[in-house]
Amino acid sequence: MIPIRKAVIPVAGLGTRFLPMTKAQPKEMLPLVDKPVIQYVVEEASRSGISNMILITSEGKRSIENHFSRFYELEELLIKKNRTEDLNQLRWIQSLGEFTFVSQPEPLGLGHAVLCAEKAVGTEFFALLLGDDIFDPQEDALQALIKAHKASGKSVVGVQEVPQDHVERYGIVNNPDHEKNTYWSVHTIIEKPPASNTESRWAVVDRYILTPHIFKLLQDTRPGVGGEIQLTDALSQLANQGELIACPIPAKRFDTGNKIDYVKASITFALKHPEIGSDISEFLRDLKT
After folding, report:
1. Exposed end of the chain (fewer CB within 10 Å): N or C?
2. End-to-end CA separation in angstroms for the chain
3. CATH number at residue 280
4. Considering the domain boundaries, does residue 206 fall inside one?
5. pLDDT in tens, 223-281
């Protein structure tokens, strides 16, 4: 079996939930301590053995491309000032993989963003990581899906159980056939159902391993409201063909696309930072008094 070598990472969204902060900068470039959110996503893919990063961008996202490209003048300045640690941090970014940037000319849905990557992906299975969701770097997230794919040979959606009152925010897959399954066949996947319409609380959480056949399914998918092509429709077809499994992700997740989780992620990552963690911990203790 060919290893998963390519990751598609859509970053073309406008980030309207964070206005006015995202008017002039992409939401994926918002900082978590000393790195932008998108770097944590790319690092997760790199840790999982992926070497080709395909970022789906749009107008106004040039700073993302700049972040993952070399900045020779800055490197020369750091060398002259003997700032070796800062220089190594910059070079570490380039070592994460080879980067390809593909433009999504119109915001026509996640399915359309994935379809834009068809030429860059080619004919092999690939990972899909959405830039809003980040996971604790000390735990396996994408790696769990890759293991499930290797064992099954099928496409995989990452899932986590969510509270009943959060079900309507996610795509929901059916419950496992057996309680102790490490992964299970997806028979149904419903986009943002009312909680009363499903017994399952297993939500799709923005990590996938997908067959290249997904591109043909997306091409054949009829656009919905606003002309958008929904990835869920193509995933439902994979499920109907018996080619889709769900794999629980055993890692703490933050949806940095909403303000509360973004702040929680900032605090969590600050507490774990080797340089400032103890000071932040002391500061938080003082806030309680």
Report:
1. C
2. 57
3. 3.90.550.10
4. yes
5. 876 788 999 999 999 999 999 999 999 888 998 888 999 999 999 999 999 999 999 99
The structural domain count of the chain equals 1
Which residue pairs from 255-259 have beta carbons closer than 8 angstroms and sit at least 24 positions apart in sequence?
A: 255/132, 255/133, 256/27, 256/30, 256/32, 256/37, 256/132, 256/133, 256/134, 257/15, 257/17, 257/27, 257/132, 257/133, 258/17, 259/17, 259/18
Contact 207, 253 (CB under 8 A): no
**Encoded tokens for 262:** 């973004």
Token couple for 135? 């996971």
Cα–Cα dist 56/10, whole Å: 4
**Domain annotation covers residue 39:** yes
In a domain, 1, yes or no: no
State whether residue 18 is helix, strand or coil. helix
Distance of alpha carbon 93 from alpha carbon 35, whole angstroms: 10
